[in-house]
Amino acid sequence: MDTYDVMRTTGAVRQFTGEPLPDETLTRILDNARFAPSGGNRQGTHVIVIRDEATKSALADLSVTGARRYIAQKRHGESPWNPLHPMGVTDEDLAAVQVPRATHLLDAEVLLVICVDLGVVAAFDQDLDRIGVVAGASVYPLVWNILLAARNEGFGGVLTTMAIAEEPAVKQLLAIPDDHALAAVLPLGKPVTQVRRLTRKPVSEFVTRERFDGPAFG
Questions:
Q1: Are the C-beta atoms of residues 4 and 198 closer than 8 Å to each other?
Q2: pLDDT in tens, 34-73
Q3: HEC profile for the chain?
């Protein structure tokens, strides 16, 4: 596919046909995705390929905590898991939420668990009085490259982070070392339907000249 076509049609895929995603194809996806940029070329990422149904089920169960809070906050008009706006829902509100099973984790042909070695990231924002985001630059370019490569091969997936709320349990389940952080769980498979056109803000709505409050670009 044309590069721009891939970029414009790589949407979030959560429903899969069950068609196999062979190791040969997955290897090709990962072999191309590995050329994502990495600070200092340190390449501190580690990918775990999961096909075992019991492990998929366990990861789906470990996603419930994050999903329950997300749903409860949405119901109460809050921005879920937002670092600037503390959660206002009560324990009773949380307990009342019935969380549907993460079927996209169960139905995917493969789950990729993406980790990053915290011993090699350069977190330039670690001393700032806000939530850290810079360390994500060491892992999320790879994650997105995987999704782009999967789209190019006719497959799809979605970047999920719900399980990170239970990171200690995920680490124990998958024998992830203490010095690594869980960054994402990617379900991959053949999409039931493929998005042909994504809806995004025009450039002029989020790009400005010279300053944040400068004139619109484009």
A1: no
A2: 999 998 999 999 999 999 999 999 999 999 999 999 999 9
A3: CCHHHHHHHCCCCCCECCCCCCHHHHHHHHHHHCCCCCHHHCCCEEEEEECCHHHHHHHHHHCHHHHHHHHHHHHCCCCCCCCCCCCCCCHHHHHCCCCCCCHHHHHCCEEEEEEEECCCCCCCCCCCCCCCCHHHHHCHHHHHHHHHHHHHCCCEECCECHHHHHHHHHHHHHCCCCCEEEEEEEEEECECCCCCCCCCCCHHHHCECCCCCCCECC
**Alpha-carbon radius of gyration of the chain:** 19
Token pair of 154 as six digits: 């006719």
Domain 3-50+101-205 is found in CATH 3.40.109.10: yes
Q: Are the C-beta atoms of residues 48 and 112 closer than 8 Å to each other?
A: yes
> The tokens of 112 are what?
């990729």
Please say whether the beta carbons of 160 and 186 come within 8 A. Answer: yes
Phi, psi of 188 (to 5 degrees): -125, 145
- Please write the tens of the pLDDT for every residue from 66-108: 999 999 999 999 999 999 998 999 999 999 999 988 899 999 9
Strands 156-157 and 180-189: what pairing?
A: antiparallel
Among candidate residues 60, 44, 55, 43, the one with its CA nearest the CA of residue 172: 55
Question: pTM value?
Answer: 0.95
Domain residue spans of the chain: 3-50+101-205
